[in-house]
Amino acid sequence: MERSGILCGGAWCVDLILMVDHWPAEETVSTVKAEKIFGGCPGHNMSTALKRLGAPFPVEGLGLLGDDAEGKYLLKVCAELGIDSSALEVRKGITTAITLVMNSQATGKRTFFYTPGAHALQTPDDFDFTRTRARIAHLGLPGMHEKLDAPWKKEVSGWVTVLKKVREVGLKANFEMASIPPERTRVAMNPMLPWLDTLIINDWEAGALANIETVRDGITDVAACRKAAAYLIAHTQLSFIAVHFPFGGIVLSRSGEVTEQSSVNVPQSAIVGSNGAGDAFAAGILFGHHEGWPMQKSLRLAHASAAASLRSETTTGSIMPWADCLAQADSWGWRS
Description:
By secondary structure, this protein is α/β, with parallel strands linked by helices. It has one domain (6-23, 32-332): CATH 3.40.1190.20. Helix content is 33%, strand content 26%. The chain contains ten helices and 15 strands. A nine-stranded mixed beta sheet has the order 5-4-1-8-9-10-13-14-15, sandwiched between helices. Strands 3-2-6-7 form a four-stranded mixed beta sheet. A two-stranded antiparallel sheet has the order 11-12. The longest helix has 15 residues, at 277-291. The chain is globular, with a radius of gyration of 19 Å. The model has no long low-confidence stretch (mean pLDDT 95).
């Protein structure tokens, strides 16, 4: 069977996004300037980003939703964008996961309040990869799923069981990480690394996995990111690892090829929110990877997609077709 497409599974949630004038100290007040409901989490963000980029291949969703308004909203999004939702299970008696996203106008930074809902109930039994014809499975988030993060039968975690199921049917696995403490990151991710084919992460996550300090006083140490990427390539079977940071990104392949690209010089006036920018970056990489593009082109699209996503407080709402993203990036210019 010739495989084509990307299956986006694991976490699907609804974001309740609040734009506040500033992040308040405890027992003080901040004003909500705007609010919006949008989809979130790796499954939704990757699938919708790929469709908005104009993916010429199938995009599928896999996950667990509640039989509630939030679950119906996510299914409606899939229908509107042409995402195959046949593997998104709606289960009665549970609630869809919800994230309250607080975007500060003063700093552009985000704070999340997470209600796991269905995510707390997911087990490896909820992941059936036997019916998909996709080539790549994009999954996540470790550290945010009670049962998947815990030991499962003879495996160290349910995620390892899921990734073994991915490998058994011939899919390639890409994984998205969560912003959890470094020690928890290593405990959760190290058993999974042998079962991953690609990994697209940020500077902090790369440092956490390799136990290398990659961010000092809020500034990325690019040399340390290269070192962390080299460590991960040497200790895994990844075909490539991509590490992104505010002013650029690097990709190290198993062959030793290094690809680097500065990020887009987005005008401050165009930036509305950064929620989902990492997902948009990963979507650009996986889009090009699926289509067999040179890595330099894929990395440019990753940055261009992330830049386009900054124009909205939502995760993927302002992403455009891939050629338009690149044209917009060229018009803004690239950081030197």
